[in-house]
């Protein structure tokens, strides 16, 4: 899911879209359901090149496109089977009342730059010690207000440069209650475009997982309504995989 700077009551229904674009950069779209009694920040680690400046990340406003993932999911729906055939269950993201307005977003170029944020939105030394691999990464920080009941957060989107241009990155490491556990409960759907299907076929989340990516039978131009910049390739299909259950607490890289 992601890293929170404070305790949250509930996080579920996470959806993440990733697409490699020009000059070794990547699009990332993130959505979830959240319940929290206090103002918190969500931190997404980003594998930006070491020494990146503060302006390398472009934040994209998707408040006008709250149903981004619902639209993409329609590309995976198949026609109803003939009468008399067993009906297969298909996934459809639950529609949620959106109570979240606009939120503040910042790019933190290095771990030490967290000192420039409001103290409420910093991570403890214990968390950093448990995440040594992120010492020279960058971080996007989204400040979220209190939500007394589970609320759908409208998609957050950004574009960033990758230190390894041939990799596509999904931020899935969990820190929800101020600690980093070796295993975590996942409730994720991951989506991507512009990734070689043979590469997706070779991908395995973990030794105990046989999860495989599925490809939509139609291009996204058949289902999307909004067109916001270059986030998706309308002329291409989309790939999707579910990660649900207990898995090693780490990010997904393909």
Structure description:
The chain has 254 residues and is mainly β. Helices cover 7% and strands 35% of the residues. The strands form 3 sheets. The chain has a 7-stranded mixed sheet with strand order 5-8-3-2-10-12-11, with no helix packed on it. The protein is globular, with a radius of gyration of 18 Å.
**Most strands sheet:** 7 strands, mixed
How many individual helices? 3
Mean of all residue-level pLDDT scores: 81
**DSSP E strands, number:** 13
The general outline is globular
Number of domains: 1
What is the helix fraction of residues, given as a range? under 10%
Structural class: mainly beta
Record the strand order, biggest sheet: 5-8-3-2-10-12-11
> Strand-residue fraction?
25-35%
Question: What's the helix-strand series?
Answer: EEEEEHEHEEEEHEEE
Task: Provide the gyration radius in Å.
Answer: 18 Å
Low-confidence stretches: 79-101
Intertermini distance: 17 Å
For the record, the CATH architecture stands as Sandwich
Query: Class in CATH?
Result: Mainly Beta
CATH topology: Baculovirus p35
